[in-house]
Amino acid sequence: MVFLSFHLQGCFRRNVTVVTIYASLGEEALSYSLNETEVTTVICGRKELKTLVNISGQLDSVKRVICMDDDIPSDASSIAYNWRITSFAEVVRLGRENPVEADLPLSADVAVIMYTSGSTGLPKGVMMTHGNVLATLSAVMTIVPDIGTKDIYLAYLPMAHILELAAENLMAAVGVPIGYGSPLTLTDTSNKIKKGTKGDATALRPTLMAAVPAILDRVRDGVFKKVNATGGFPKMLFHFAYARRLQAVNGSWLGAWGLEKALWDFLVFRKVRAILGGRIRFILSGGAPLSGDTQQFINICLGAPIGQGYGLTETCAGGTFSDVDDPSVGRVGPPLPCSFIKLIDWPEGGYLINDSPMPRGEIVIGGPNVTLGYFKNEEKTKESYKVDERGMRWFYTGDIGRFHSDGCLEIIDRKKDIVKLQHGEYVSLGKVEAALIVSPFVDNIMVHADPFHSYCVALVVGSQFTLEEWASEQGISYINFSDLCAKEVTVKEVHTSLVKEGKKAHLEKFEIPAKIKLLSDPWTPESGLVTAALKLKREAIKKTFDEELSKLYAS
């Protein structure tokens, strides 16, 4: 079963294993995943059905397709492809007329085979048992404050993402209504919202959300862009109120709480809260590191705690979760009740558990939430999973962390993202990108390092709104946004901004890109350059922009 939505609970009730696959993986990866798991029934939308038609000759086992839309495309003929295509409305009718008893699963039964989008090669299917899922959900229920039927959850991430699967299962378990949206229709100003109509958050007015950092970064950037464009007294008032609240969060000005807090909420921040419906009381962030600036923005402007979690598909999203009352930034909290976490030495990268002032090393997660391994891939499973003498199953994450004295974990690196430069310096690509993406001129960025050079370079997707506003202020004429990004003066301005942010983040000189290529077209899952969770697909980006990268090093 594939292309999961609210059918998940029905499949669980009948002990049917569900396969989740990102629709944006591409035709080769899609046919590979469907054939490897011998899927017989596919659940999808009209758009995905067209993709299935394109690869129909490559599919070995598909017999039934359930289309969520009633208007099934005429070229998806069941006669041509030996498929039985049924609308979801018809499935509902059949189920009502032919009720069946539950066939409840055991804890060790495989609930989900989730295919990771990955950044290289073909996707891997992670096998999660019902016990894995319940371990994570029961642990998170002890962390999220007072979750119950009075809440409303806004779901907009793909259910093929482990964070969303865990979140929606949790909501179903405690009876929280779920409203479905999309990243492109989330707010009133989102790309796919018709001018004058409401976004998903405004219409639903949720109290709970799960989010990936890329989405929260967009909300933050959108607010600051609007405030700065307004100018004058409103701009001054916003930044003054923000500074006062930041002092309160940092504990340096207690007067910014109480009556003053209520004043700023009424005069300034309630307008910001309206962006996400005005009722958000808790946000869970996961999937990638959240910048300190964005975390502070959410705490201050939305007035809601943001719980930053750390987990992987291989650990069924379980790992760590920050405490609700922890105002610190850059950390992902202590281990969840279902998880055991240890650090092991990585001498090659210079990270050791006896480092001072904090132990550092590769993060290894154990516990009942650690999954069985990779479907039909015993070699990769043995490489990443280990079972100790007590029978505890551990997953070796490849992420580098350090433990603070209060037991909170901080993610500081990733083994795969570290490149050694010509003179022996190590550059952590992910760390540098996280520091530079806060530049208002940047919509996305990929840093590239080469062992044969002493410096790194970067591909930068420009922020159209900010750059066009800057060009207007500078009196710079241009034909279109692509033309603006190609101008030397624009590239110089963006690079200057990156150097400024790099110094602010205390990056070493060799970590700050010496040269950049400014791009005008955004990176989307549809383009194949980022995953559905908006993580960079480095190999795909490097292949697409190989010529541009070569020119940066040659110039």
Structural class: alpha/beta
Largest sheet: 6 strands, mixed
Oligomer: single chain
The CATH class of the largest domain is Alpha Beta
- CATH architecture assignment name of the largest domain: 3-Layer(aba) Sandwich
Overall mean pLDDT stands at: 88
Strand content: 15-25%
Give the count of helical stretches: 19
Would you identify the regions where 5 or more consecutive residues have pLDDT less than 50?
1-5
Bulk shape: globular
Q: How many separate domains? A: 4
- CATH topology grouping of the largest domain: Rossmann fold
What percent of the residues sit in helical stretches (DSSP H or I)? 25-40%
Strand order of the largest sheet: 8-7-9-10-11-12
Distance between the termini: 51 Å
Q: How big is the Rg?
A: 24 Å
Tally of DSSP β-strands = 23
Textual characterization of the structure:
The chain contains 19 helices and 23 strands. With 555 residues, the chain is an alpha/beta fold. It has four domains: 1-104, 3-Layer(aba) Sandwich (Rossmann fold), CATH 3.40.50; 146-304, Rossmann fold, CATH 3.40.50; 334-415, Luciferase, Domain 3 (Luciferase, domain 3); 421-554, ANL, C-terminal domain (GMP Synthetase, Chain A, domain 3, 2-Layer Sandwich). The strands form six sheets. It has a six-stranded mixed beta sheet with strand order 8-7-9-10-11-12. The longest helix has 18 residues, at 213-230.
Quick tags:
555 residues, alpha/beta, Rossmann fold, Luciferase, domain 3, 4 domains, six-stranded mixed sheet, five-stranded antiparallel sheet, 35% helix, disordered N terminus
